[in-house]
Amino acid sequence: MTIGPLDGLRRPELVVAPDDVINWHIFDGMQTGAGSNWPRYIQYEGNNTTLFDWMRDRETEEVHFVPRDNIDLDASEVQLDGLSLSPGGHRIRMTLPRTLKRLSIMGDPKLVAFDLPLGATWPDIHLSDNGVLASIDGLPSLTGVRSLGIRNTVLGTPFDCRSLLSLRNLDHLRLYGAAAHLEALAALPLKGLELRFVPDLGGLPDLTTWPGLGYFIAWNVDEGVGKTLRKAADQLARQLGEDGTSQVSKLRSRQWFIEECGLPFGGWSSKNEKAASKAYKAASKRLRAATIKDEARAAVTVFVDVVNRLSGIETSERDDAGDAVAMLAAVRPDLIGVEEALAWFDETRDF
Predict the structure, then answer these.
(1) Three-state SS letters, 9-45
(2) CB 191, CB 245: distance < 8 Å
(3) 40 has a pLDDT exceeding 50
């Protein structure tokens, strides 16, 4: 492996084969302008675990490790602040670095098993299984975790908060995306709770449930429950004063979540996605203002006309456009049904 001039690069980008032997010591002595080790951040895709051997004698801020085979590794003496693991389809067994402050698992967490060195404190842990994480059941490695972040899809299968009940030490929780059985959180000794992009807050316990709660954030959340929650958060903020944080902002309707997070155009070309999303939102706005069926039909057909003018619309895009029309019907079920809207779709489309 050869490395060209690296001056000014924040993160070196080196293309290597999965089983290439890498001399990590080539970076020895390299520093940032501020005097810290360079590179500060390393992303490595492959099976050469000598990276971790090298970091036993060298402090590093962050590593993103993507193995291409099953890995069993003792990293207990590695000097590392943050670690991201992307297992893909491979199993990772690791004793975590004693110094680790942050661990992110980007993929199926059931493929990752880890231990803590004797006397080490738990790092903050973040789980994101490609945007879909419905439960943490079957993850014994998490038993002692104190701070946990869950990233789930916003409009798909909700994360089941009941699966958190085995984490008896959990006192700081961050939930991103759809969640269900929020009432289960009452059993946890929470000191910090963060809710982001949660479209349904039904069942959320009153904030007074947690006498030690000193940090609470709700952002882009269900406007129905959110209005009452905002009052409770304001009350908590007054009680905490400068000793804590409590705030609720960006209350959103169900329709907002659909239009911002749930439109089916994500697999389209960037240009087509932007045009279709803009047309969908315009049609949704017209539907909300419609008073008669003819106005509703016009809103749907104008949307389909926009898609007609886009290039590269094949079978999969046609199915996505049909899904979007069905979603538009749900905006005004009092004026149109799904089958009726899809009939207008078939009459109007030329793709």
Answers:
(1) CCCCCCCCCCCCCCCHHHHCCCECCCCCECCCEEEEE
(2) no
(3) yes
* pLDDT tens for each residue of 284-310: 999 999 999 999 999 999 999 999 999
Give me the residues paired with residue 94 across strands: 73, 114
Q: Tens digits of per-residue pLDDT, 323-350?
A: 999 999 999 999 999 999 999 999 999 9
Q: Where are the beta strands (DSSP E) in the chain?
A: 41-45, 60-66, 71-74, 80-85, 92-95, 102-106, 112-115, 124-128, 147-151, 159-160, 172-176, 179-180, 192-198, 215-222, 245-252
Q: How many CB atoms lie within 10 A of CB 165?
A: 13
pLDDT > 70? residue 277: yes
312-318 mean pLDDT: 90
Given a cut of 50, is residue 7 above it in pLDDT? no
C-alpha pair distances (Å), 278 with each of 11, 263, 283, 342: 36, 11, 9, 20
- Measured between alpha carbons, how far is 50 from 170 in angstroms, rounded to an integer? 34
227 and 197 Cβ atoms separated by less than 8 Å: no
d(CA 157, CA 148): 19
> Among residues 139, 233, 218, 124, which one has the least CA distance to residue 179?
218
For the chain, the residue count is 351
